[in-house]
Amino acid sequence: TFLPLLRARDIQKHYLNIPDDYFVKYGIHLAEPRNSDLFTGIRILVQRIVTPTYLKICLTDINILCNSDIITLKPKAEVTEKELLVIYGILASRLTMYILKSQNVNLDRATYPKINTTTLQDHPLPDISNVNTRFYSIIRDIINSKKRNPSFDTSSLESEIDLMVYDLYGLSND
Fold first, then answer.
1. What are phi and psi for residue 18, nearest 5 degrees?
2. Do 84 and 136 form a contact (C-beta atoms < 8 A)?
3. What is the distance between the alpha carbons of residues 39 and 162, in angstroms, rounded to a whole number?
4. pLDDT score recorded for residue 50
5. d(CA 140, CA 26)
6. Confidence at 148, pLDDT banded by 50, 70, 90
7. What pLDDT shows up at residue 33?
8. What is the pTM of this model?
9. CB 31 within 8 A of CB 39
10. In whole angstroms, how far apart are CA 111 and each of 9, 50, 52, 89?
11. H or E stretch covering 15
C-alpha cells in the first residue's frame, strides 16, 4: 500500500499541508521502518527545524507517514481530548520556544536549528487540571480556521493563548 509521506515543509503552524505528489510503499522492506501505530490516530506533529519564536506544530488524526524531520507525539490512552488541546496550546506558545532556546544553544544557530524528541520530552508542563474552557475553545478555533484557510490570520487568538500559557506557569506577560 502506498501512503502519502509528510516532509518537514508540510508541517506549518497549526495546519498540515498534505502532499499529493510524494508517496511511499510502507513495510518491512524499508531500511528502518517504524511502528505503523505512530502514523495513525490523533497526534501532534512538530517540525524539527524551528523558527526563532515558535514551533511549527499541528494536530491531526489523518493516517499519513512522516519522515524523520517530523516529531510525532502520540497521547497516552488516558489523556483526554481537552488535555491534548492544552498540551498542544502550550507547545505552540511563544513561551515554549523561549524555554527550549534557553535550554539548548543549538536552537540559536542560523542554519537548521533542530529539536529532538528528548528536547520535547524534557519540556516542563504546568498543572493543567484547572484550565479555563476558553483555552480549549481558542485552540479549536485556531485549528479549524487554519484547516479552512491556511493563510487565515490567527495571531490575535495565538496571543490570547500565549497569555493563558504564561498564567499556567505562574508568569506575567512581562
1. -75, 120
2. no
3. 29
4. 87
5. 32
6. very high
7. 62
8. 0.89
9. no
10. 15, 10, 12, 27
11. strand 15-16
Give exposure, 20-37, as e/b (b: 16+ Cβ within 10 Å): eeeeeebeeeeeeeeeee
Residues with Cβ < 8 Å from 149, sequence gap 6 or more?
Answer: none
Query: Grid coordinates representing 147?
Result: 484547516
* Cross-strand pairs, 46: 57, 71
Q: Which has more pLDDT, 31 or 169?
A: 169
Residue 173 in contact with residue 163, Cβ under 8 Å?
yes
How far is the C-alpha of 77 from the C-alpha of 69, rounded, in Å? 25
Find the range with the poorest average confidence among 14-28, 79-93, 134-148.
14-28
Cell of 56: 511549527
Q: How far is CA 119 from CA 103, 159, 170, in A?
A: 9, 24, 22
Between the CA of residue 30 and those of 6, 24, 70, 109, what are the distances in Å?
16, 10, 18, 33
- Helix, strand, coil in percent for the chain, rounding step 5: 40, 15, 45
In whole angstroms, how far apart are CA 17 and each of 21, 50, 56? Answer: 12, 17, 12
